[in-house]
Amino acid sequence: MNIKELWTYVINQLSTVELTDIIDILIVTFILYYAYKFMRDRRAGKLSIGILIIVGVLIASNLLKLGAVKFLLENFFQVGLIALIIVFQPELRSMLEKIGNSSLKNFNRSNDTEVYVTEVCNAVETLSKDKTGALIVIERNTKLGDHTRVGTVLDADISSSLINTIFFPNTPLHDGAVIIRDGRLYMAGCFLPLSQTSEINKNLGTRHRAALGVSENSDALVIIVSEETGTISVAFDGILRRGFTKKTLETYIYGVLHKERTVSSIAKKGERFFSKKGGENDGEK
User: Fold this and answer.
1) Which pTM value belongs to this model?
2) 192 phi and psi, to 5 degrees?
3) C-alpha distances in angstroms, 125 versus 1, 156, 157, 171?
4) What is the pLDDT of residues 152-208, one digit of tens each?
5) Cα separation of 120 and 253, whole Å?
6) Are 188 and 216 in contact (CB under 8 A)?
7) 124 vs 147, 161, 221, 256, CA distance in Å?
8) Strands 184-190, 152-156: parallel, antiparallel or unpaired by DSSP?
9) What is the pLDDT of residues 130-168, one digit of tens each?
10) What domains, with CATH codes, occur in the chain?
């Protein structure tokens, strides 16, 4: 089939498309999008990989005519799908509620990292001086949907005054963690899993254990302010680092969030430097 025949075939196929076909495709796309978002925001994403593997084995058993394997897997799917619906009933209900409540204005939000990092560091400095305990989680690639179900959705612009208000003693949300997602103060009052490591300092409390726990199971960056000493700490990649100031904290956060940007910036500066040197040498010659 040459290009002309292929083009004619495509045009003929497109001419048969009706309005109902377009609506059908849009509905399927909508369902797949929310299914992907549901799996992405929770650890159930790993479960989907297991299901895909089983589907692959079922297809292989059909091709290779493995009767016993095919029989077992077909029966597994009949019972297993019902079991999955029962196990994930709360998550499915939450997903359906979000579909009804979601708004198109939430799409295409910008992520002004520099502004929100500055606001976070300003808030942490104030909290440290006042010895007000705080736990701030900056979500990165691994979504923390499993830990946000018990929190309170804020979905607000990040400001130091808002963060200070949330962690003010005896307010309803001051005991939990704040989660920052996509440059927005997404949730507050969230409870995180405690680290089970025995290497942590025995003098450190629940906030530090919770920070380590979430950093061990995700790529999140967690900032902790001790209410006893006002010490600023950071948990990242399962490691707890202590004794930060506002300036060193800001530098550290940028180092984690902007490694690629930093490398690119250095490369560009080096390029301009050597280009300038080359121009000067050409002039001297």
Assistant:
1) 0.55
2) -110, 155
3) 69, 21, 19, 20
4) 889 899 999 999 999 998 888 888 899 999 889 999 999 888 887 766 777 788 889
5) 10
6) no
7) 22, 11, 14, 18
8) antiparallel
9) 999 999 999 988 778 776 677 888 989 999 999 999 999
10) 3-104 (no CATH), 113-261 (3.40.1700.10)
